[in-house]
Amino acid sequence: AQEKGYGWFFSGLSDLFATDDLTLINFEGTLTEETEKKEKKFNFKGPEEYTDILTLGSVEAVTVANNHTLDYGAQGREDTIANLEGAGIVVSGNGKLGVFEKNGVKVGMTGYCFPYTDGKKDITKDVKALREMGCQIVIASFHWGSEYREDFTGEQRTIGRAAIKAGADIVVGHHPHIVQGIERYEDSYILYSVGNLVFGGNVDPSDRDAYAALLQALPSTGEFDEMFEINEPGILYRPWFTTAAGIYLSTVNEMLLQSDEENLYLMPAFPMTEKPVSFRLAAKGGAIVEATIKGDKVESLQVTMRDGVPAHSYTVYLRGKKLDTVKAQ
User: In this model, does residue 234 exceed pLDDT 90?
Assistant: First the structure.
């Protein structure tokens, strides 16, 4: 931090975090001047100014539901929440519900930490409360599992599935410090462990793998793709699922084509990179789109119509940006 500044920590993900609407992370530590600490092997704390690491990294929300939030007792936790919220960051976890709103869409966040009674956790009341606040999307975060265990536990699966049944739109897990699996469950996803991202608790971890999950949402209007291919001909995906509030969501490396009679909307769920990505999408309205995009530009685009469907022109949008009018063949 002294050599490279607070903006360095998340700089490798700036293209992703700075261009999304909401970045949610697990904040595993405290921001406090409290000196009385719990007797444990590791106690994490930093000064209030460390909130700059988050704001400069385009982090808008954190969960504090983890086993280090109380490293410096109740006062340390209160200081941490006050400092985070003072920096404009939405805080959730351990009984505190967070709500982030942008462009008329409210995202609700709730979080929990072990130990879990009898290996279970019912989050129904919290999900209901967030829905009553007007949240169209609910993200449930769980601090769970066993450190450095590559496979998730039965307790994680039980709790994660119960959270989806309770109405959470997606479940995000952390604590094992390494990447664990992703489960598709009831048209939603459970991310069992995303691994470490910016982590000072171990200067030389043996496993440095981690991932950031990119989630897209849009109002449920228009018609949606039935299938598509990305760089792998013949491999079809059905990536999008619908939340209880009628919001369509997707996760990492997925793609959506939304169409109506006059417009085609290309909405990748992967970050803008200099590596070209080619895909073929089939919309319900009859249009078949083949394209290659690189960053925020379309390098090639061809629209054809299924047999028997009259050809006409479409206005094409990429990530909401209007491109050209294309005549379908």
Answer: no
Q: What is the mean pLDDT of residues 128-138?
A: 93
Least confident of 104-108, 215-219, 312-316: 215-219
Q: How many residues does the chain have?
A: 329
Distance CA 170, CA 183 (A): 11
Written as six digits, the tokens of 84 are 């985070």
Instruction: Report the C-alpha gap between 214 and 11 in whole angstroms.
Output: 17
The DSSP element (H or E) to which 106 belongs, if any, is strand 105-113
Greatest alpha-carbon pair distance for the chain in Å reads 75
- Are the beta carbons of 307 and 291 closer than 8 angstroms? no
Alpha-carbon distance of 181 to 191, in angstroms, equals 7
The chain-wide mean pLDDT, for the chain, equals: 82
Q: Is residue 287 packed enough to be buried (19+ CB in 10 Å), middle (13-18) or exposed (0-12)?
A: buried
Cis peptide preceding 115, ω within 30 of 0: yes
Task: Report how far residue 95's alpha carbon sits from residue 112's, in angstroms, rounded to the nearest whole number.
Answer: 8
Residue 221, pLDDT above cutoff 80:
no
Predicted TM-score (pTM) of the model is 0.71
Are 249 and 240 in contact, with CB atoms under 8 Å apart? Answer: yes
Q: Which helix (H) or strand (E) holds 313?
A: strand 313-318
Q: Rounded distance, CA 17 to CA 272, Å?
A: 11
Higher pLDDT, 120 or 244: 120
